[in-house]
Predict the structure of MFS transporter, DHA2 family, multidrug resistance protein.
Amino acid sequence: MNANAIATPQDGGARSLRFAALLATYMQSANLPLPNSALRFIQGSLSMTDDQAGWIFTAYLGASAITLPLAQWLAGRFGVKLVYQAAIVLLIVGLWLATAATTPLEFVGARIVQGIASGVLGPLSMGISLETLPPARRPKFGAVFTAVVLLGIATGPTVGGWLSEYHGWRSMFYASIPLSVFIFLVVALLLAEKKAETKPPYDFFGFGTFTLSMIGLQMLLDRGERLDWFASTEIWIEAIAFVLGMYLFVVHVLTTKVHFINKSLLRDRNFVLSTVIFFALGVVLLSTMALTSPMLDEILGYPPVTTGLMTLPRGAGLVGSFILMSRYSDRYDQRLFVAAGIALVAYANWMMLGYSPLMDWSPVAIAGAIQGIGLGILMPSISKVAFNTLDPKLRPEGTGFFNLMRAYGSTLGVAVVQLYFFNNTQAMHMALASNLTPYRAAAHSLVSAPLPALAGLNEMITGQAAFIAVLDQFKILMVVMLVVSPLVVFLRKPVSTN
């Protein structure tokens, strides 16, 4: 954020403003996985199908990924205070719409509104927080800010599960409204701003074509299974939007000097390879959560409060290892930590392949904690490797692109695992049910079985098929990390900053 875009108060006012900005950061990250532990309640209340439940996460992620690159331009064009307050109001509207939703599409629409606000709040909260700090404290604040983001992601399912269990699922969104009003009032009273002297330029063509491509791909993945893929005109339109948007974007990047992504970023080997690894990290970071909570809640029948609590070991490992790495790892070669983080994440996903319907809580807690530690080691180390060799002039643009790739990794990752989950569930259901034939002794009694008994048997088979499908998705996430692991060998050794 430009220093001349915002004037900040001093002393207590600065601390209050920074607290409000960090609270907004926590809220916008916690709201992403907030419904995770209460999907069964939400689906039952809104008559939502399993594939529509996946849209709860992809709608929020996709909308935030679209507005994330626009946040700085909007702040420079209209003023930080105005844009920030507008984003808070939009978040409140999205929260209220979620509580008032009576159909799946209304709820997904509310999540899109929340995601639009989230994409703006994240980077502007960072800028406001930095402006309230003395210059000497700013370089180390990035780790604090990221820790708050991770804390929100880690505790969101727990908070949502507890509120849903005792106060109904709508209460999780009601609870955020007074906090949002508090943030709005603090910003209104304490944040002063200066309008930018010149209107900042922006590559709307590059941004538009890239966004068109990503929206087309996202919709294709989300809607393809329901519409029987390319038998549907809508899927063809979405596929064309993806291909055309990506083609125009690539041509634009190759043929213009100033555009949405600075080509100079692509000349730094460490930055490019680290961005690919960070994209893979985004795939695993939220996809695991999007699989684990429904597995516990819907398939194994845990209550929402228990489902939420079982995500805490992963969150504790993630936040704890991230903080330790941010403080004490600078004296060592960061590539070693990158390799160690990837290995731990892959190992944790391998442990998840051993989940069983007969297990207790301990395998989930142990595997989650190991994966959280691995992610907490990987995130700061890969960030340091990415920016250590990058020209300081390119770091602001690089930071935006780096985080954008993680966001798209998360939204596409959730869409892909949801897609394969439904396909594999159907395939496994057919494979298991094919053994129930009149020629098998175990199936003889089914010939005269009453309809409720047959329905119960079908439900049991569906549950078994769904559980096997979940394990298959953990295997995909493990493969994703293994595929990017060789890239560590090609990373250059970071320059020591000591």
